[in-house]
Amino acid sequence: MSQTRQVTLSSYIVTPKELSDALTKNVPTRISTAPRVVPLCASWFLPNDPQGRSGQQVFREQRIPSARFFDLDAVKDHDSPYPHMLPTEENFAKAMQDLGLRRDDEIVVYDTKELGIFSAPRVGWTLRVFGHPSVHLLNNFRLWVEQGYPTESGETEPVEPSDYPVPSIDAGKVVEFSEMKEIAKDYGKEGADGIQILDARSRGRWAGIDPEPRPGLSSGHIPGSTSVPVSELLDPETGTLLSSGRLRALFESKGLDPEKPIISSCGTGVTAAVVDTALEEADFGRADGRRLYDGSWT
Fold first, then answer.
1. Which residue among the candidates 14, 266, 279, 282 is catalytic per the annotation?
2. What digits encode the pLDDT tens for the residues 258-282?
3. Residue from 204, 187, 202, 223 nearest 266 by CA
4. Which residues contact 257 (CB under 8 A, 6 or more apart)?
5. What 8-state DSSP symbol labels residue 63?
6. What is the residue-wise DSSP string for 227-266?
7. Which of 18, 126, 189, 213 lies at a C-alpha separation of 20 to 30 Å from 164?
8. Bridge partners of 63?
9. Max mean pLDDT range (15-29, 138-152, 170-184, 259-273)
10. Is 41 known to be catalytic?
11. What angle, rounded to 10 degrees, do the helices at 120-129 and 272-281 form?
12. What integer pLDDT is reported at residue 71 of this predicted model?
């Protein structure tokens, strides 16, 4: 008889209690081949972080027990001059194999407690782009810690590499530079498609007032884009994603049209995924009409 378990996580966004219950009910063993619930830390900081922190550093300092670490600076297209372009299908599969992750794992991605929700949505989006069947986002690790759920620190135990298969990429979720260039060029012209571009960077960077975190890169924005800073999508106290109703009201207040296509953008494609996640949570726009600009402002 094949091993089965009850599926306990039904929505993309999950609470600390939901994750804790799922981990408690699905304790993995070394010999088990049953699907697992696996926490995946996606902590990442901007290169100009005032405290010089790194994702690996905070992962070692405090993490959910048995969590793995997904390194955004390592799992990328190494042939691209841009920081966080999607990896090839082969490199993605190799990263998943090295993390010991299996195709049937139920993966719950989470962020650093310091930033609340920041880079985890990018990793969640990446997993979905490459077709991983069951992906969730914890809302959030700060609450996990504050509500007294268990954590561990120090170096992690080695994991057994998996045989994760090479997937196919869902190109329908991604906007490339050549297409974005044409969209920007056509902005304001008669007969243009009316595609809406949402920029997750701070309003100062979008307006060209504040500097970009990467030396030599000027600030400003893509013609016709709308400023939707990540900070507006999060609760200022907990760093959690706002409720679906509040998110929808925010998008409506920006004058956005849910019937028109939407592209999320940012600095390097990381926080654009926060906007994409917020749109999904708010049920704002058609699922097949929401995409992410992988290259973003860089």
1. 266
2. 999 999 999 878 999 999 999 999 9
3. 202
4. 194, 196
5. B
6. E--GGGGB-TTT-PBPPHHHHHHHHHHTT--TTS-EEEE-
7. 18
8. 152
9. 138-152
10. no
11. 80
12. 95
